Amino acid sequence: MNAKPYKREIPKSTWYLGRRRDILHMLSEISSLFIGIYAIILLWGLTALADGPGAYQLFLQRLTNPLSLGFHWLALAFALYNSISWFNLTPKAMPVQLGENFVPGYLIVAAHYVAWACASLFILFISGVIANG
Amino acid sequence: MARSNKPLVWSMFAAGGTLAALVIPALLLVTLMAAYGHPPSSLSYDNMHDFASGWLGKISIFLVISLCLWHAAHRMRTALHGLGLRADRTVAIAGYSIAGAGTLLTLWNLFQI
Asked: How far apart are CA B93 and CA B110, in angstroms?
């Protein structure tokens, strides 16, 4: 066994650029960075809330920083894309079997979209965005 | 049989991903209004404090922040591997440490309120 096995060269950091679905997959992976940063912003707000009215007011004021505004729009775009791609994968990640047959994938996807719409409307309603925006 | 933490990590990842997909876009819209300087009434100190004082509010806040942190930590780990960074141990320790510290800080804050 002297011959070296043939190893195809795969560029380590740019392999996904060749195929559209690999690029899309990488985009939804990267969306998790924005979700993580957003969770930290929420935690920062919670810390301010626990510190008292002054700290909380300062937090709300800091949110109006242009960086925060830019982050919000970028994160919103990534989050929407992430929700869509996550729900579209659910039949593969969580197949549901009823008796002999599997529930058709489009029903599982549709159920998630309905849940997404309900959760979003609920949040926008109780937060006052819809009612007195 | 060797014990593995994989099922635990994976179920937190899946739960976090589903929760994030369901609520993050709407939450971003709420705080986007605050970013424009017009926070909705619910974001006032009094209303948020009332919300975080009740058990339902505490549980919701805890689940959203901690599950999103764990989800992001786990997924950034695979994303960074995909982007060619071959330092999985360091990335894993850094990510899970941030998620763990964030979870503890969330709990601590919620007990203060």
From this structure: 25
> Is CATH 3.30.990.10 the right assignment for the domain spanning B6-35+45-112?
no
Question: Does the distance separating the beta carbons of B22 and A116 come in below 8 Å?
Answer: yes
B28 and A38 within 8 Å at the Cβ level: the answer is yes
- Helix axis angle, A20-51 relative to B45-53, nearest 10°? 100
Contact yes or no for B13/B75 (Cβ under 8 A): yes
Cβ contact A46:B109 at 8 Å:
yes
For residue B4, give how far its alpha carbon lies from the nearest alpha carbon of chain A (Å): 20
pLDDT digits (tens, 9 = 90+) for B76-100: 988 888 888 888 888 889 899 999 9
Q: Flag whether A130 is in a domain.
A: yes
Say what the ipTM of the complex is: 0.91
